[in-house]
Amino acid sequence: MNFLLLFFSATLIFNSMRCEERNFRVYIKEVNITHLDTDLYEKFECKVYQVDNRTYMDSVHIFKRTVDDITVHAALDFWKLNSKQKMKLYDVQFNGCYILENANKNRLFNMYVQNLKKHSNVKFKCPFRANVSYEVKNLTMSEQDFPSFVPLGKFRSLIEYCTNQKLRARVIASGQILPHSTDPLKVLE
Ligand SMILES: *[C@@H]1O[C@H](CO)[C@@H](O)[C@H](O)[C@H]1NC(C)=O
Ligand SMILES: *[C@@H]1O[C@H](CO)[C@@H](O)[C@H](O)[C@H]1NC(C)=O
Ligand SMILES: *[C@@H]1O[C@H](CO)[C@@H](O)[C@H](O)[C@H]1NC(C)=O
Ligand SMILES: *[C@@H]1O[C@H](CO)[C@@H](O)[C@H](O)[C@H]1NC(C)=O
Q: Which architecture, in CATH terms, is 22-179?
C-alpha cells in the first residue's frame, strides 16, 4: 500500500479551498526507504522524478505473505523559508486497512485514495496478497488539492508501516514548497 501522499495531508491542518489560482509548487526532492523488513517484503521501492516542473512518483510493493493489518505512523515537519525553526504539522497513527476501506468518509483521504486508484495496477486493500506486485505509476498531485495559501519552505515527511506491532518499513521524503515559476534545478537549499 502506498500512503506516501500523506505528506500532503498538511491540508488536514489548512482546510482546503478549490479552484483558485495557485502560486506555489510542491517539489519532492527524494524518497528513501529504510528499516525494510525483508521477512515481509519481497520488494518495496519508490522513486520520484520531475517532468515539466511537476513531481511524479512510481512505486512497487511485493509482500512475501498475506498482510491484513497495517498500522501507519505519519509525521510531517516543516521549515518556513529562511527559518530554522521546525514546525510539526502532524504526527498521527492510524489503521491503514481501515483508511483504505473507508476513505470515502473523509474528504481528504478520499482524494488521495481516488488518486491512488487511478494510478495503480491492482486495488490497494487489505488483505494484501503474497507475491502480487502492487504498483503505482506516474502518481502526481494537483496544486488545486491544496489550500490556496501554503507558505514556502522545506518539508520532511516520515511514514512508518507496522504489522503485528513491528516496524516493517520507514519512508522518508524531503521536498520544498516553491513559488510557481521556480526552476526545480535551482532549489533553495
Ligand atoms: C510466493 O512465492 C514463493 C516463491 O515463489 C512461494 O514459495 C510461496 O509459496 C508463494 N506464496 C503464495 C502465498 O503464493
Ligand atoms: C504521466 O502523466 C502525465 C500527465 O498526467 C502524462 O503527460 C505522461 O505521459 C504520463 N507518463 C506516463 C509514463 O504514463
Ligand atoms: C536519502 O539517502 C541519502 C543517501 O543515504 C541521503 O544523503 C539523504 O539525505 C536521504 N534523504 C532523506 C530525505 O532522508
Ligand atoms: C519550469 O520552470 C521554468 C523556470 O521558471 C520555466 O522556465 C519553465 O517554463 C517551466 N516549465 C513548464 C513546463 O512549466
A: Distorted Sandwich (2.70)
